[in-house]
Amino acid sequence: MNSSALELEVPKHAAPDTVRRILDQAKQDRRTSLTAPEAKAICDAYGITVPREALATSADEAAARAADMGFPVVLKIVSRDILHKTEAGGVLVGLKSVDEVRAGYDTILANAKAYNANAEIAGVQVQQMLTSGQEVIIGAVTDDSFGKLVAFGMGGILVEVLKDITFRLAPIDKDEALGMIDGIQAAEMLRGVRGGEPADRAALADMIARVSRLVDDFPEIAELDLNPVFAMANGAIAADVRIVLDFAPKEVRPRPGQAEILAAMNRIMRPRAVAVIGASAENGKIGNSVMKNIINGGYPGEIYPIHPQAAEIMGYKAYKSVKDVPSEIDVAVFAIPAKFVAGALKECGEKGIAGAVLIPSGFAETGNEEGQRELQEIGRKYNIRLMGPNIYGFYYLPAKLCATFCTPYDVRGHAALSSQSGGIGMAIIGFSRSAKMGVSAIVGLGNKSDLDEDDLLTFFEADDETHIVAQHLEDLKDGRSFADVARRVTKKKPVVVLKAGRTAAGAKAASSHTGALAGNDRIYEDVFKQVGVIRARSLREMLDFARGIPKLPTPAGENVVIITGAGGSGVLLSDACVDYGLKLMAMPEDLDTAFRKFIPPFGAAGNPVDITGGEPPSTYQNTIRLGLEDPRIHALILGYWHTIITPPMVFANLVVQVVEEFRAKGIEKPIVASLAGDVEVEEAAEFLYEHGIPSYAYSTEIPVAVLGAKYNWARGAGLIR
After folding, report:
1. Model pTM?
2. Which residues of the chain are under the pLDDT cut of 50?
């Protein structure tokens, strides 16, 4: 029996030193986990409350320790070779006497030897047994993309079966920890139900915050479980602690500073001179399409076609190499086969070109990882930022630059969109054109060998021409960097993300319970929420958000009122409000009376306000006017039903008339509309949209989703009182 893992007296002022000493010893011993006494010492060092416990090396000592702390007690095997104690029969609970403890000690040792005859056993941990409180789990994991994450969930079946757990980037403060507690499905259980005492949420939040600080301070802690934690009316205690270690050095992704990123991105997106490597005069060639788009898009800067034989292409003098161009070049668009890219990229580096738009495929997406690494090495050596490879290029309309082989696009506006997939890029272009959604940029990122979503966010944050950013992605090469940038950008501009692969397999095999629950999509969901990113569930939703959110003014508060001409529409709109996190206003008596003045006796005031389908246009006008006049109402959802008395375009015109009347008075509130009826409602919806009112024919969900997205952004940015 080895007694090297002893209880440690930990001076509070020496917390980091204590943890470092324990971790260094484990590293020296080549261990990947800590013993229970070591884990307890680390918890003590960080003020994480655990039960009274002691290490016993004999049955008599175990009995004496148990008698001292009081029954019932729990016995647990202490061995650096046995991580999963329960599987080894190394845990006994509810022991109520010294005789049971003595017998239990012998039983646990026998079970441990049967489980692993070669296990080095330090003794048996005697622990005060907790018998009251709500069971929860607090933990931490290390994600390949996001790094250290802290987790919280309900214990027992709620976390095992329902996966009722939430994650945040570590470290977090107590306020964020309280948000985690409120963010699980079973949050109300902790507030006390059916006469039960509420849990001490402040104590839980404090424990979550301390765990987050611990794992942030010590990257070697790969996984940590406090399971279960007993949340009581006064305090919280972690009954069991498991700490898994990983001392392998982590690969550090090269990351330029914000100023450096902006300098390069400005040269790429707003270049004074563009080279097209592989430019061609032959129709059907990618290099031909790129040249045509740049020229026909009205790009005012210098254009340098690069071709090994041609003297001129499309009226522009051609050069054999970028190095032969006598002037400075900001960005080069590549339209040559993959096997020639590395050589041409090196020449770009020698020329001092800031960015390379790598259209060619044939790299990591086809298994050519080595070829892609070569490009990355060249890029780092010469400080060239790489967009792609395997992309359609990009559009940046303020510079009149269509650096792509796709169809030209010229509907200028303020939405910047990007996609990891070329097919999704085509859909973005098509929708934007069809819906007349003005864009500032459309960017393809492809394999993301270098430039990725956070580089684009850094540029669009500083771009006055961009008011909203919407991004499709399949993964994040550096989720932590993305989160850091997104947290900053979302305070100024909405950021919408469509994360593909929601049904993909979860995280890699984990040693801790928390790690096993850390599904990839759950982490993305919670981190996006933490940093204020709006998550779209579908391509259409992302596009509708990109188009609709900028149209809506920021709401002054949470009170939403539905005004509808059909009861069925009102019910569906109410359901959608629940789904998208909107708060239907509880109608004050005086406001209810005011609405009733304009609707027939068989209509319904309250909220939704049902004016019925037989009412004339004036009823819509009066109720909408009241909704805009009253400062207690912060947003309106209109549910229109096609009638002969108020045809679709009559409805659309009267809504615009009332809204513009109040805009002239300086009163603006978010308004969305759902239109049900024959095909004429399509024209009416488009007319409303053109006048700043996001409106949708045949849908009660989309308008509410758009309004909900605006609210989610405004809440995250701290703009709603």
Report:
1. 0.89
2. 1-13, 505-509
